[in-house]
Amino acid sequence: MTIMSRLVGLLLKLPPAETYDVSVERDLKVPMPDGVTLLGDHYVPRGGGNRPTLLVRSPYGRAGMWGMLFGRPFAERGFQVFIQSCRGTFGSGGTFDAFRNERADGLATVEWVKKQPWFSGELATAGPSYLGFVQWAIAADAGPELKAMTTMITSSEFRTLVYPGESFSLDTGLTWINVMAHQEDGALAALLSNMQAEKKLQAIHPHLPLNTIDEAAVQKPVPFFRDWLAHNEPTDDWWTPIDFSKTVSQVTAPVHLLGGWYDIFLPQTLADYARLKQGGQQPYLTIGPWSHTDFGGLGRMLRESIIWSRAQLLGDKSHLRKSPIQVHVMGANEWRDFPDWPPAGYEPQRWHLQKNRGLAPNAPEASDPDHYRYDPADPTPAVGGVSLSQNTGPKDNRALEARSDVLSYTSAPLDRDLEIIGAVSAELFVQSSLEYTDFFARLCDVDPSGKTTNICDGLLRLQPGNPPTEADGSQRVCIDLWATAYQFRQGHRIRLQVSSGSHPRFARNPGSGEPLATATTLKVADQTIYHDPAHPSAILLPVKV
Questions:
Q1: Cβ atoms 150, 308 nearer than 8 A
Q2: Cβ neighbours of residue 542 under 8 Å, at least 6 residues apart?
Q3: Helix (H, G, I), strand (E, B) or coil at 419
Q4: Rounded to an integer, what distance in angstroms lies between the CA atom of residue 302 and that of residue 13?
Q5: How far apart are CA 421 and CA 449, in angstroms?
Q6: In this predicted structure, which of 33-47, 62-76, 316-330, 436-450 has the lowest mean pLDDT?
Q7: In whole angstroms, what separates CA 255 from the centre of its chain?
């Protein structure tokens, strides 16, 4: 085992190990207040006395990859580690109900850890995705023993992920329930299932109604997935017990947040950073060029989590960077340090849609609007971007832009490099033949060869009266394209795509106004995009001033 752990340390460029002599006690039983027993594995570096404890709670198992990434690496570098399986997974009792038991079970586990003879009085937490959410679930109430947190590609709340722009994250949701359905089938079977998932799920993406698509995906109902579909209204209090965003500002433990420009949780990561700042904290923030499943990103995150935990609990700041903010500027392929996020000195600059599909900083001239037709029976496909599936990250968009239901607005070649760092948004003046419809906008880089690469994007679902309709029938639509850090190189062109979907990343809008879970009627939408002095449609880019 030490050979493998040494190899992991070298591949991921981890700080030097203190020891490779680690003992593991498996299947420790932790009682919950309701009588359910959860199982955990305890990693201990031998001969070092009672070291600080790293608590990792996971629905994905305790051994294998998770033990290799969070058990041994931390134990070899000065920590005890307790990795626990969440309720209803990998031998832990009860039924897995995504997100809903993590606060109660997590706090009960913390109290159990505090009573163990091996507990030193100092606790840290770390982990990505769901393993990060469980940290936020307990962070405000874990007590003064909690000395450090490393939250990776995660969020303190999940509704924003499930309903981006008030659409539904279909591809990510189906990919995740497929993982959860097969992860305990055995290592080989689970691997084969994940390898085959893309093709299998593609075949069912057109399935309607959505409230039975889980059976098509995993051959059985998934109650929590159906709950997500049923509770789709933003004011639905079903989400309140699993929303910990309001307590983030109360967290006193030092936090390092890590994310990726193509990660499904990017907006939530940045929002949690802002909440910590509002609470008087100075968290660290690292954003790389990663998607959610990028192994290279996971290596950097694991390295940073060890460095952060050692700095806060062991006083070892030899590897801790001075700047609290570090982001990767894509295009330039450079890391930049800043004292805060968003960085000072970057202001939104309007690049207006022009006639003849142009894009420029100057105001638009009088021109006729552009039109396209969106047919949910042949939905505009997702090409890269943000997803839990393999269809994620930067992709060549040329085939997508050749479709008749995608409009592209392109600048002249840049005469100098243009760097943007911060939030990107689009303000579009639109009109639709339907009251229920979507608008999708995407920022792209067009290189001299004509290849188009997606940078960031977003979608907004429209409903009657939201946004309001003007006297001329148009609507002003503001779309959050998320944040980014990107350098357009000299000779490249900036492009804005406009369409009405990105399926199956977002569930297609049927156009009928039927409930999301049960909709089956598909209506074609005729869409209009204005770009004239009275309707100055634009993309807003955070440019250095």
A1: yes
A2: 342, 346, 347, 348, 349, 420, 421, 422, 423, 424
A3: strand
A4: 10
A5: 25
A6: 62-76
A7: 18
Query: Does 191 score more than 70 pLDDT?
Result: no
Q: Which structure tokens are listed for 438?
A: 């979507």
- Cα torsion 288, 542, 390, 179: sign: positive
DSSP 486-523: EEEPTT-EEEEEEES--BTTSPPP-SS---TTT-----
Which pair of structure tokens corresponds to residue 528? 């209009």
Distances (CA, A) of 161 to 357, 387, 485: 32, 10, 21
Whole-number CA gyration radius for the chain: 24
In a 13 Å sphere around the CA of 357, the CA atoms on its Cβ side amount to 12
What domains lie within the chain, and their CATH numbers?
2-168+232-338 (3.40.50.1820), 169-231 (no CATH), 346-544 (2.60.120.260)
pLDDT of residue 1: 58
Residue whose structure tokens are 């433990």 = 253
| Strands 493-499 and 325-329, bridge-based pairing | unpaired
Q: Considering the entire predicted model, what is its pTM?
A: 0.96
Q: Which pair of tokens denotes residue 281?
A: 């904290």
Beta strands in 145-254 (DSSP E): 146-152
Q: Which two tokens stand for residue 288?
A: 């790389």
CA distance 92 to 78: 27
How would you classify residue 395: left for phi > 0, otherwise alpha for psi between -120 and 50, otherwise beta?
Answer: beta
The whole-angstrom separation of Cα 501 and Cα 483 is 20
- For residue 412, the SS3 value is coil
Tokens of 271: 């929002």
